[in-house]
Amino acid sequence: MSNSFGQIFRISTWGESHGGGVGVVIDGCPPQIPLSEEEIQIDLDRRRPGQSEIVTPRKESDSCEILSGVFEGKTLGTPIAILVRNKDQRPSSYNEMKDKYRPSHADYTYDAKYGTRAWHGGGRASARETIGRVAAAVVAKKVLAQLYPGIEILSWVQSVKDIEAQVDGQTVTSAMIESNIVRTGDPEAVGPMTDLIKMMRSEGNSVGGVVECIVRNAPAGLGNPVFGKLEATLAQAMMSLPATKGFEIGSGFGGTQLTGAEHNDPFYMDGDTVRTTSNRSGGVQGGISNGENISFKVAFKPTATIMTEQQTVSSQKEDTELKGRGRHDPCVLPRAVPIVEAMTALTLCDHALLHAAQCGSSQAS
Amino acid sequence: MSNSFGQIFRISTWGESHGGGVGVVIDGCPPQIPLSEEEIQIDLDRRRPGQSEIVTPRKESDSCEILSGVFEGKTLGTPIAILVRNKDQRPSSYNEMKDKYRPSHADYTYDAKYGTRAWHGGGRASARETIGRVAAAVVAKKVLAQLYPGIEILSWVQSVKDIEAQVDGQTVTSAMIESNIVRTGDPEAVGPMTDLIKMMRSEGNSVGGVVECIVRNAPAGLGNPVFGKLEATLAQAMMSLPATKGFEIGSGFGGTQLTGAEHNDPFYMDGDTVRTTSNRSGGVQGGISNGENISFKVAFKPTATIMTEQQTVSSQKEDTELKGRGRHDPCVLPRAVPIVEAMTALTLCDHALLHAAQCGSSQAS
Amino acid sequence: MSNSFGQIFRISTWGESHGGGVGVVIDGCPPQIPLSEEEIQIDLDRRRPGQSEIVTPRKESDSCEILSGVFEGKTLGTPIAILVRNKDQRPSSYNEMKDKYRPSHADYTYDAKYGTRAWHGGGRASARETIGRVAAAVVAKKVLAQLYPGIEILSWVQSVKDIEAQVDGQTVTSAMIESNIVRTGDPEAVGPMTDLIKMMRSEGNSVGGVVECIVRNAPAGLGNPVFGKLEATLAQAMMSLPATKGFEIGSGFGGTQLTGAEHNDPFYMDGDTVRTTSNRSGGVQGGISNGENISFKVAFKPTATIMTEQQTVSSQKEDTELKGRGRHDPCVLPRAVPIVEAMTALTLCDHALLHAAQCGSSQAS
Amino acid sequence: MSNSFGQIFRISTWGESHGGGVGVVIDGCPPQIPLSEEEIQIDLDRRRPGQSEIVTPRKESDSCEILSGVFEGKTLGTPIAILVRNKDQRPSSYNEMKDKYRPSHADYTYDAKYGTRAWHGGGRASARETIGRVAAAVVAKKVLAQLYPGIEILSWVQSVKDIEAQVDGQTVTSAMIESNIVRTGDPEAVGPMTDLIKMMRSEGNSVGGVVECIVRNAPAGLGNPVFGKLEATLAQAMMSLPATKGFEIGSGFGGTQLTGAEHNDPFYMDGDTVRTTSNRSGGVQGGISNGENISFKVAFKPTATIMTEQQTVSSQKEDTELKGRGRHDPCVLPRAVPIVEAMTALTLCDHALLHAAQCGSSQAS
């Protein structure tokens, strides 16, 4: 079950970076949702390698095939299987990794757990695994749009190392974010961020940063206390992504610097709607959305693969050294943006269907 | 399933702050584990109200009763049901809350979701809900101790507002932490933290902070990629606790300020053991523990209940004001320490049994 | 998870026949459902021992207490915990069973699996475990009634050993079934069945039979292919009951004696409703209800506890003999009737909420 | 989750009879298990159409491709995705079914539930769906063989309509069963059964029967009371198969004709092993295997597709008539044999890993 996510709208991803391909099975999708491979491809293209000069040059078209669950252009309510073949595989690039653990990668821990690993590539720990999530999230977004017209999920690069973007979550648009290869929401930050990433790559080094995500026009009522609190599920979703080290909702760690009197979000009536004058809660109170923007941040560490010599050990348990090879992102942030959006959509879609199941009939009355 | 946690060692908690009581059912516990109510009581006492001058004065002995699953002092392998009665209930303190939503509490969102709420107290959103978790975790810790002798889970208050403790995670002991009512690991910080909390209470205000947790002598191999990555489950576990706003593992958000060359943890051999010279990974790589200390932080917001007048709305959807009443913690951190430990134990125990299930036989060979 | 049933409306039962009590936690129940202990007690009384001269004389009032999840007489949407204390315990009756395995009981297998067992009584394998199911099913029936007014679940004793009742599933009523202590739907069979059970008891012997169940006014559309087919979930539900050995839906094993031309259920229009002229499908086609009566049978073996000397082995693994003692039902069928109804209600309720989750919005359009 | 089965060794199947193909994802498989496409193909060939003159002539090679989870011939511990393409599709054969519901098929119920269906073929309700189960079961059998050397799962056709085979479950072999196209274990029954099936086909009619299954050299201790009782999981597994109408374990419905004194299985010591002199329990007591042969029967109804005119209704809800077309099995029993074995293997494998998780460490001590 470790490779499944969601209780009603449930995805199961599979696949290694090298091998037959990667994919996903979606179970529990509502029927009669229009769905095409072209729609899925749009988000896969936002995630795929080789899309710009600041990401890995691995050449993968990441073309998807819907194998089941869709008939005459609409979902059947049965499992939707989606397949993306691996194409541009270069296992030989990994020959040295066969016997040496790359620092801060999953090589050693997979060996420690399973006694084996797919060494010619990142295997299951590769970010290629997220293809299935992105594909499934296209479906999730369509379900959400049907349930909650106007709901909008937007992520952007909030910082690269110490370069911080100035973004207004209330007004930033998808067009603004997609207009630059860094996928930040601040036009002023594009240049410095791009330059820093390029410099890192030229040095064989890497860099991390923070992705921010906002959900606008979210309904009140999503989230299932106590272990399925909305922020708990979002935290699990985000921390399940490769390279993530932290998650904050609303005021986050910074909120610990305020007193209760400063931190509380006062309620007020905006016409018939209950609103809060501030949003340090991040749109979630007691694990349930309150109708304000859902707002959170995710920390991504600098890419573990660097091109300089590093101290490590061999699988024969001897000290040795290793220099990174292969094609890698000097900064995962630009490609992480659609992935964070995807996990957000999957989380909300499942919570929306759970909410309909438990509270749908009582609210109708 | 929202009130259940874990796949093998699975707990289901229930109960509101006012009403018959709170409790937990543990399913999937290994048989033949010695277990007594007295052992469970020890941790419940660390969590209970009224234990010191800086926590809520609500008088609850929180005495537990084991209703099933234990026979002649040992677990049977069948579900263990544990009950704690609510005693010191004062629903009248909440009369005003019946019609007014307390800011940054769950009052409004529960109403929005369920169309009802247990208004005479915090209901299910009360921190009393965590009693079941703490009780179950006593069992989890015994299972872990049997599987991994020497494993040690320690939490402490790392900061209260802007007062930061200086704690060495490698050497801090349970005795040091339990020796002071704040439950910090830094003797120098006890005084300032205590003073701040008392001042906040006297002002009718509140304060938050950060709890840090370390797991020492953890085995390599725990965690189940991809959605069950160890840090993903820990993040879900911690963000399911009341008042949490952030989670960081290892380098966390601070790690985004480093380059890959600075951030990577070099491997080296320490006798027969693979070790890392630094631990920015926080003991987890690719979602699986690597044998180093598992190390993470959790941000707790300032308590939402404050004793000053606040702007809010009524359940009749009119603007109004509300002043906090009732007995509350001016700072949840001291009582959060055993709860963070509890969720860590529950997470690790379940992962340990999952690991035994999937990889136990292959490792034996 | 072995002690939980259902995906949305999820129950977790706990408890041994001797010890603190037995109970259930219901998670995922819709909010705002009126619920009282008195309502639950009605079905518990139909299940409890000592209710008539043909069942076990163990004196248990089986009084239930709702510990959580209900406020001001209505469900909150939070977990509902229900407790029934064990009262009339006579562990001394079981002294001999401490060291000897009762034939066709669970004594040996529990020891083989867990290395321990609650020997002073049937432990977890006791039919007392079903109390939690019956209590939870009262809630499930209320949810079903709200979703599908007119839906009716009726079980009765169809046969005791070779005495077969003549019952018309279309017209039999609850009043007819409850009017006799055997709980059969055929007035002619009451006498012979009662006499047989009494004779068996006087001989220290026991007897089994078949319970039939029908669901009238069930909606079309319930059931989730493929592993959650309605008949698959019903089969699991029924075979999870103590003493069950077989499950049939519709034509069952007898249906294998027909050809396809004889077995198929022709469709016809009954006004606006699609109906079938026969119902060998038992109301389910392709795992989904078709709107006809859902109809199935469950085989219960003769009670394993008999009062005559039997060959067995000791826990020290030596051949020995054992004579049954304690208070037991010479025939479980009369008390099995409410339990079969309970599991049917739990199964349908969960499927109804699953159906609302997946297909609710598409049908609304 | 409706298309997933198992808690640890968890399979998720997908696919319709017409479309891209069918397949399965296996999560939770132990690592380092040798696995090849050739091994999987062996059982797929036992299941595939066109294998003999008494099954459907649809021409499908059912060649499988392992897409992930296997590296250098061994399992990785990561999800194993297996794909079988649909080849010999003839959607035009189904043109009439587009608007007419085939009696006793899933056409109407899928429409009633989902508001749509894959009408050019049986869609998800087709027996092609079982391909994924059979493929996954090959892996499950390898895991079982590693955990319990000598364990043997054997199914055979016990009856076709009123022709009953005489088979000794203790001595029947796979070779005997596979030696005839009916897959019965009784050489005397082969001729009559074959003749009956051929006659039915020539008449455009169909026939059903009973498959029996035995597990030899099963360990004691498998099964997880109460909802995960071994017989409950087996019942769910079998009743999730297309065309099944009944399930019996051990004495089954026939056992209700015995008294307790006749029905109980006396224990005796066979060397160091606890055995029973009879096996009316079917190898399971209290939901846990007792080390005797696990023995059960499954009723399969006559194939719903027949070639004679039948009364039905259209999707426009008008009375009409329909005559079966397409390529179908006049009797599903011969091909059901490997499928029953497959579901048995999947059930036991999951229970074996669950048992290792919960009881593995306590038994080691």
TrEMBL record, chains A, B, C, D:
Q: Which InterPro entries match?
A: Chorismate_synth, Chorismate_synth_AroC_sf, Chorismate_synthase_CS
Q: Which controlled-vocabulary keywords does the entry list?
A: Amino-acid biosynthesis, Aromatic amino acid biosynthesis, FAD, Flavoprotein, FMN, Lyase, NADP
Question: Tell me, which GO biological process terms does this entry list?
Answer: amino acid biosynthetic process; aromatic amino acid family biosynthetic process; chorismate biosynthetic process
Give binding positions for FMN.
124-126, 286, 301-305, 327
Query: What does the entry list as the binding residues for NADP(+)?
Result: 47
Q: Give the Enzyme Commission number.
A: 4.2.3.5
The pathway this protein participates in, as annotated, is: Metabolic intermediate biosynthesis; chorismate biosynthesis; chorismate from D-erythrose 4-phosphate and phosphoenolpyruvate: step 7/7
Reactions catalysed, semicolon-separated, are: 5-O-(1-carboxyvinyl)-3-phosphoshikimate = chorismate + phosphate
Q: What Gene3D superfamilies would the database entry show?
A: Chorismate synthase AroC (3.60.150.10)
Q: What class of enzyme is it?
A: lyase
Q: Name the needed cofactors.
A: FMNH2
Q: Name one GO cellular component term.
A: cytosol
State the superkingdom. Answer: Bacteria
List the residue ranges forming a coiled coil, or say none: none
Under the heading PROSITE patterns, the entry gives: CHORISMATE_SYNTHASE_1 (PS00787), CHORISMATE_SYNTHASE_2 (PS00788), CHORISMATE_SYNTHASE_3 (PS00789)
As to how many cofactors bind and how, the note says: Reduced FMN (FMNH(2)).
- Any one GO molecular function term: FMN binding
Q: Tell me, what does this protein do in biology?
A: This reaction introduces a second double bond into the aromatic ring system.
Q: Which family, according to UniProt?
A: Belongs to the chorismate synthase family.
Please give the subunit comment from the record: Homotetramer.
The name under which this protein is listed is Chorismate synthase
Please name the source species. Answer: Oceaniferula flava
